[in-house]
Amino acid sequence: MAQVSIRINGRSYDIACDDGQEERIHALASYVDERVREISDSVGQIGEQRLLVMTSLLIADELSNAHEQLATDQKTTAEPGSLSAAESDELAGNIENMAERIEAIAGKLAKD
After folding, report:
1. Would you say the pTM of this structure is higher than 0.70?
2. Which of 2, 44, 108, 110 has the fewest CB atoms within 10 Å, counting from its CB?
């Protein structure tokens, strides 16, 4: 198991991940840090815990919207240029995988 150090809102966190996932964890951490900065710029420094909770809710909302859009897309009839059933299934799997990874990272951050 690999260990990576990420930085969110100016604070370093050591995160364990599967070997080969280090680059992905860094990319996800960069995304979370960007979202934290957006919220911080909007509402100010409201405390680390609240800021991370608000960021988690924002990202969960984005994920929920993606799920809803996927469900809507699956209900529409196939049109030229639309996703095939296999492509939709693959996209759904990727979204689920991303959700699991975000939840795992959030869980690890909450322990710190």
Report:
1. no
2. 44
